[in-house]
Design a protein that fits this description.
406 residues, alpha+beta, 7-stranded mixed beta sheet, 4-stranded antiparallel beta sheet, 12 helices, 21 strands, 23% strand, elongated
Length: 406
């Protein structure tokens, strides 16, 4: 186990204060257990430099070694201390440490040590961030898919989740606006495909699970969030709510577009807003597993009071989803129930801001995980034109965080 001090101070304490204070440590890493060996070789692990030393290269790092017991009463073998600066020397005579058990050292005059630990490798690499990719020109392609199944209720009645009140936005419009208002800033052309599923379409009443809200099969894109809302309201007046609740067609639709550009210049985000229990779970799982290897993420917002157990399963935070024995390469789904963000005081501004924050929280890490898996580094930010007028000073963002591999 690796321990670091829990208290940091920019001031140097007096000698008297140091003598009178017991240094407290916090665990920053635990290795795996090596069984049935007296000469364990632990696997390489990564840890952020900020967690290891918080930028202080001479900060004390304590390493404790235990003998594992099945009942949890692990036997303490010994410990040693080091620092980032010492570890950075890599494999050498400076990084062979005697493991000392203080109690044994006090009791036994001939005690030398309880063994030694040798550092085999040490490397530091910069960790690219979401902002690095955005600065390098990566575009977020935002697509919306809205549930038009009959379980939402008749849009002309106030009890419907699709009811268009002249005084306030319904749950669908609120969720769309909260997420879209933020994510649209990462898309330069502000043109967003908007799809519907689960409705009968005019003129023949054909059921569709992948129809353009603007009625244009060739180009389902809408101009900005206002354009999506306008197309959504138009569809409510022209289609018949029906069913069932199938996700796979819209997931596959966006996955096709994501598959067309995999060089890191584009990343697709699909927002699905739905009220019901999913009907094509097996097909949706397969579509998500296939999409997990593409530059793509899926956000699902559940509106209404239905049970959303299946959505939680798709989220994959606890158990990565699989289909036909194939595990998804990444967790690309984030699910949130809209009812958790309904502000009883009527302050929709604050509650929708919290919804947007939580819904979009996983997108940066999901984008970075795809880029890292594909070995795609951020492109350098484009240089400012020579004739650009002087800009007001801006605060320089912190450098990319470093990760240490030990």
């Amino acid at each position: 186990m690796f321990w670091v001090p829990t208290e940091m101070s920019t001031q140097v304490p007096s000698r008297e204060a140091v003598r009178g204070r017991t240094r407290r440590f916090t665990i920053c890493h635990k290795t795996e257990v090596m069984k049935n060996t007296l000469n364990p070789v632990w696997q390489t692990f990564s840890i952020p430099v900020r967690a290891l030393c918080n930028g202080d290269y001479d900060r004390t790092i304590k390493v404790e070694v235990y003998d594992w017991d099945r009942d949890g009463s692990h036997d303490f073998i010994g410990e040693f201390t080091t620092s980032y600066r010492e570890l950075a020397r890599g494999q050498s005579q400076f990084n062979i440490y005697e493991v000392i058990n203080p109690k044994k050292k006090m009791k036994k005059k001939k005690y030398v040590n309880s063994g030694t630990v040798t550092l085999l490798s040490f490397a530091v690499e910069s960790e690219c961030t979401f902002l690095d990719y955005i600065k390098g020109g990566t575009q977020i392609n935002f697509t919306v898919a809205i549930d038009f199944t009959a379980s939402n209720g008749n849009p002309s009645q106030s009890t419907s989740l699709h009811y268009m009140s002249p005084y306030q936005l319904n749950a669908y419009a609120l969720a769309l606006t909260a997420v879209g208002e933020i994510i649209q800033h990462y898309d330069s052309d502000k043109m967003f495909p908007a799809l519907g599923f689960g409705a009968k379409l005019p003129p023949d009443g054909r059921v569709s699970h992948e129809f353009p809200l603007n009625g244009n099969q060739e180009n389902p894109s809408c101009c900005g969030i206002d354009g999506i809302l306008e197309a959504y309201h138009h569809s409510l007046r022209t289609v018949q709510l029906y069913g069932p609740t199938n996700f796979a067609p819209v997931v596959t639709h966006v996955a096709r577009n994501a598959a067309a550009v995999q060089d890191g210049s584009q990343y697709s985000v699909l927002l699905i807003i739905t009220d019901g229990v999913i009907s094509d779970m097996a097909q949706t799982k397969e579509a998500i597993v296939n999409a997990a290897k593409l530059p793509m993420s899926i956000i699902i917002i559940g509106v209404g009071q239905a049970e959303f157990d299946a959505m939680v399963e798709l989220d994959g935070d606890d158990v990565r989803i699989s289909s036909r024995g194939k595990l998804a390469e990444r967790d690309i789904v984030q699910f949130v129930p809209f009812r958790d963000y309904v502000d009883r005081t009527g302050n929709h501004v604050l509650s929708m801001a919290r919804l947007a924050r939580d819904v979009l929280a996983e997108i940066p890490d999901q984008l970075v995980s795809y880029m890292k898996a594909q070995g795609i580094r951020p492109r350098p930010p484009p240089a400012a034109p020579a004739h650009s007028p002087p800009q007001s000073p801006v605060r320089t963002p912190p450098a990319s965080p470093l990760h240490t591999h030990i």
